[in-house]
């Protein structure tokens, strides 16, 4: 994250160890051999294995595993709470690098990629396409995000229905801060589209530990409300309540069949993505 150029940072993270974000297990006329099966009326005769016929005097179809290209839409929370920082980096900075790396990976694999930014006044949308120029435009849009205001109101969620009709992978990057369940209303909307949904919750370590050295007054970045607390006295109860809250959200998302993973801004991005891809591949196999 010391690399300020998003395209270079994404390439650095991805190259050398990331692969297979959406390797399919369906059968088709690919290059990687999978198995033989008996010929059935209506099968493509070009798939017949004549060598097997010569040896067995029976017709067999040679099947292969193929890679499927999909459409990936990245949804980024640009409400004011994403401006929260711990040290040199804000949550929105981590979100930028996370999305840039996954977009770079998707583009390498021939996937169409799109971007939706949820901000106070509505939704910025960038349709999914597959080409390097489109990837460069996506990087530019990520760089220009300026979090402000509250999360997008549900009235704007209808814009999400304008995507492609085929099944998509939707990757939502957010801190999951909401006032009236608006984020879970969004996730319910995404579920009605029958797409695969992944939620990355971005948190700062000082949020998790209530470790703000020298501060006793705290301001809600979205509402402007301020409170006074003694960190040392409040820390134990705060951490217990936060842990309970995070577990409740995790269970809610799992009940909706949504993949959930929390990332902290001090966590190395390459390791976080490697763990995510490995776990995702295990779930799909």
List the keywords:
285 residues, 6-stranded mixed beta sheet, single chain, alpha/beta, Rossmann fold, elongated, 2 domains, 3-stranded antiparallel beta sheet, 24% strand, 8 helices, 36% helix
Detailed description of the structure:
This is DUF58 domain-containing protein. It comes from Pedobacter cryophilus. It holds the Pfam family DUF58. The chain has helices spanning 6-14, 50-56, 91-108, 132-143, 182-192, 205-209, 231-255, 269-284; strands at residues 27-28, 32-38, 60-65, 71-77, 85-86, 89-90, 112-119, 122-129, 168-174, 196-203, 217-219, 226-228, 259-264. The model is unreliable at 18-33 (pLDDT under 50). Strands 8-7-4-9-10-13 form a six-stranded mixed β-sheet, sandwiched between helices. A three-stranded antiparallel β-sheet has the order 1-3-2, covered by helices on one side. The chain folds into two domains: 6-20 and 69-284, Rossmann fold, CATH 3.40.50; 27-65, no CATH class. α1 (6-14) packs across α3 (91-108) and α3 (91-108) runs antiparallel to α4 (132-143). The radius of gyration is 23 Å and the shape is elongated. The longest helix is centred in the C-terminal third of the chain and has 25 residues, at 231-255. It is α/β, with parallel strands linked by helices and 285 residues long.
């Amino acid at each position: 994250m010391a690399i300020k150029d998003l395209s270079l940072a994404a390439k650095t993270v991805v190259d050398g160890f990331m692969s297979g974000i959406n390797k399919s297990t369906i059968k088709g006329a690919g290059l990687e051999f999978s198995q033989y099966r008996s010929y059935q009326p209506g099968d493509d005769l070009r798939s017949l294995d004549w060598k097997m016929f010569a040896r067995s005097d029976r017709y067999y179809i040679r099947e292969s595993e193929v890679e499927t290209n999909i459409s990936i839409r990245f949804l980024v929370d640009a409400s004011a709470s994403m401006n929260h920082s711990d040290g040199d980096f804000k949550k929105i900075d981590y979100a930028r690098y996370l999305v840039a790396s996954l977009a770079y990976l998707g583009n390498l694999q021939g996937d169409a990629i799109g971007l939706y930014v949820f901000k106070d006044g509505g939704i910025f949308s960038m349709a999914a396409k597959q080409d390097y120029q489109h990837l460069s435009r996506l990087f530019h849009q990520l760089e220009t995000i300026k979090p402000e205001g509250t999360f997008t109101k549900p009235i704007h969620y209808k814009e999400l229905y304008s995507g492609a009709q085929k099944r998509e992978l939707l990757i939502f990057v957010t801190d999951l801060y909401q006032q009236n369940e608006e984020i879970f209303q969004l996730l319910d909307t995404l579920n009605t589209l029958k797409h695969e949904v992944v939620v990355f919750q971005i948190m700062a370590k000082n949020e998790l530990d209530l470790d703000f050295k020298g501060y006793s007054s705290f301001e809600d970045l979205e509402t402007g409300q301020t409170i006074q607390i003694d960190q040392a006295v409040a820390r134990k109860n705060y951490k217990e309540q936060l842990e309970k809250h995070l577990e409740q959200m995790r269970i809610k998302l799992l009940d909706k069949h949504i993949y959930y993973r929390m990332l902290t801004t001090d966590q190395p991005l390459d390791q976080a993505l490697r763990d995510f891809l490995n776990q995702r591949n295990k779930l799909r196999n």
